[in-house]
Amino acid sequence: MNNHSTRIARLGALVLATVVVIAGCKGSTPAPQATQAASTPAPTTVSTPNATASPVTTPSAATAPSAAPSATPAVAPSDTPAATAAPSDTPIASAAPSSVAGACTGTADHQAFFADAAAKLPFDVYCAVLPAGWWLQSADYQQSNSGAVNVVYKNTPGATVSLHEGNFCADPSTCWVIVSTVGSASFGPVAGSLVVASATPVYGVYVGPHTTRSYVITGSGLTQAKFVAIAAALVKVPKA
């Protein structure tokens, strides 16, 4: 074999060996891309639970309004019924004598009213002396047209006693009503006529009708005997 043939043979053997080596390397080395893709999880599946878990904590904030009612103040005790009772609805016990009108049933202010009226009016002024349970409901006097006094007393069961003194009646038909005349009775120390003024009945004692010095006491819700006793117990208020 000459030199040329020898080189060709060596070259062919080298090429064959290279092909074998390359083929062996390809068969023993696995493809890395396939294993990496299979082992890597999708990132969105991890973040989604976190996103959905965040609303779970919001109900704790919703419990805050439930505490609001406990902060609401209690109803003011200003709606209790005892604060609205009218003073005039409470019976007034007779005060101890403290002035010229000290015998009159009522408070010191009521007694001062009668003392003032007696001092300023030209006629004698009378007031009632009533048992416990009576109070003065209203009272007024005027100095014009010879003067007049008007007083109303009331007791717990609802009976009333009214006094009218002086020139109090402009229309005799409304001030001297008589259903029947019972007899005589006293207006304090003054003699008068006992009448039934209404079928309720309303009793009355009339003195000096249709004059500027007239006196009337009427009572409703009372027996005749009790009314006559109250009328007789009227006292004249001294002029200071």
Short description:
This protein is 32% helix and 24% strand.
Describe the protein in words.
This protein is an alpha+beta fold and 240 residues long. The chain is built from 8 helices and 9 strands. The strands form 2 sheets. The chain has a 7-stranded antiparallel beta sheet, covered by helices on one side. A two-stranded antiparallel sheet has the order 1-9.
Based on CA atoms alone, the radius of gyration comes out at 58 Å
Distance between the termini: 178 Å
Helical/strand content category:
alpha+beta
Major beta sheet, strand line-up? 2-3-4-8-7-6-5
Give the fraction of residues assigned to helices: 25-40%
Overall structural domain count: 2
Strand content: 15-25%
Number of helices: 8
Q: Report the uncertain regions.
A: 11-98
Shape: globular
Biggest sheet overview: 7 strands, antiparallel
Q: Average pLDDT, to the nearest integer? A: 72
**Annotation, overall tally of beta strands:** 9
The helix/strand series, from N terminus to C terminus, equals HHHHHHEEEEHEEEEHE
Layout of strands and helices, then pairs:
Blueprint: H1 3-28, H2 32-39, H3 44-53, H4 59-62, H5 68-71, H6 108-120, E1 126-127, E2 134-142, E3 148-155, E4 160-166, H7 172-175, E5 180-187, E6 190-198, E7 202-207, E8 214-220, H8 224-232, E9 235-236
Q: Can you tag this structure with a few keywords?
A:
240 residues, seven-stranded antiparallel sheet, globular, 9 strands
